[in-house]
Amino acid sequence: CSSLSQWFPKMHSLVHLETLSVSHRGFSLGPLRFHSGDKFPPNLRKLTLLGSRLPWTEMSTLGRLPNLEVLKLLYAAFEGPRWDTSDGEFVKLKILKFELLDIVEWNASSNHFPNLQRLKLDKCISLKEIPYGLG
């Protein structure tokens, strides 16, 4: 298990960084973890995670990014059967992409993702349904 702060200890100081892709292809390293001290660049607008194998409970860390507009979760970026979204998260998110995730249930209310304009689901064959009233 490795944490984001181990990989990028001063990532939060990249105040002008707007786009970030993190590829964690080393399955033998175990899943990537966000720890309470992990901080993303404050002006991050686009984030892509690939193979990080995070549990869905870690999504709240991303949901609190104040300027996040595009989020792409690819190839086991998150693992587990269920994601429960929370109020006040992903308030500026416009584009959300899931690809090759094992999610089964996604629970969200109609006031979550208030600015979502595009949702792309690709090869998420276990997902039962898209939450009603999303965006």
TrEMBL record:
Gene3D superfamilies: Ribonuclease Inhibitor
Domain of life: Eukaryota
InterPro entries hit by this protein: LRR_dom_sf
Residue spans crossing the bilayer: none
Organism of origin: Davidia involucrata
Protein name per Swiss-Prot or TrEMBL: Putative Disease resistance protein
Annotated PANTHER family: TUBULIN-SPECIFIC CHAPERONE E, UBIQUITIN-LIKE DOMAIN-CONTAINING PROTEIN
